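Lab meeting notes turned into a lecture example. A postdoc, R.K., suggested we walk through two folding results consecutively so the class can see how the record format repeats. The first protein's sequence and structure tokens come next.
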Amino acid sequence: MILLCRLYDPTEGEILLDGVNIKNYRYEEYKALFSIIFQDFKLFAYPLAQNIACSMSYSAERVHECLDKAGFGNRLAAMNNGIETCFYKDFDRDGVEISGGEAQKIAFARSLYKDAPILIFDEPTAALDPIAEYEFYLHLNDTVGDKMAIYISHRMASCRFCDHIIVFNDGEIVQKGNHESLLRDESGKYFELWNAQAQYYV
């Protein structure tokens, strides 16, 4: 993900977008293609809407729309100041503390607000409870629409929702396919990982 987003350039090999080395694109234009939820994302001690837009100015209608799509609607309804609710108490004694699961939904809404054609999610449901995680994946295709979504995850349950799966082991690609085809290969790494996690749910 770090290389794909050009936070670093590869020291060997190349990454192509539409057959063109990504180094040949203008850096700012290339970055604009991506909306990313990093695993270690941060929220700031500012109002909710500014956290979503990452800007002092924003479209209130779009903020509401993105929060609703991210499954934050019920929590938002309980906030006295709505999208103007400030987080934490650094600058506002009435600032609201946010749980890990709530923060992850806000980060998802932030990624939607940018409206980039490619979404990248790094362990997007790590802080969600099982019900919230199920709802996230249940509505994901409708939420993403015609955008491309890339998931990076160790949670095999998330793979069932993906059209294409790439399995890495020791820094190398060892398998490609969809969930059904990869499970048919009982000697493959995907089959091994799937069954290692599935045993805890049987």
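The second example is placed directly after the first for contrast:
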Amino acid sequence: MNELYRVEGTLSRGFVGQITYTVCLEEPLQKLDIHFTFDQDKRKYRPEEVTDELIRDTKALCLKNYDLTVDDDRARDIILGDMKTEIHTLATVNDEFLGCVHKQLTDRHMLWDGENASEGCIPRPVFDGVLKVTVLVFNVIKDGTGYVLTVSGE
């Protein structure tokens, strides 16, 4: 397939929101691949990255958001076991829903090929018009989380 569009970006810790990229398809396509990836090493914390400050911040958030008091060991468990960067991708063409991928993967493809489509996507024989890909960011735990989005087709 031919690469039609490519964008790279960087997300900051704590970012939550949506970023939509619009691609005007110059000609009808029978195959489409939306590939999204973000830094594998930014998805979760490693034990050596857990600092006293991070433990303190996590304890404060547990108290503020959940009225839950946790000790240092429980905060460490939360940081290493529960906290993660979570980013999903959604696609439309001419404002018609194509699919949304919610899998917890740092590297994912949304693929369409005639009557076949990736899980979470609706099969479609042709793509023509305005493609919108929305990066749905639910949580970013580390500064400098880089991502790459490419759109390819034929």
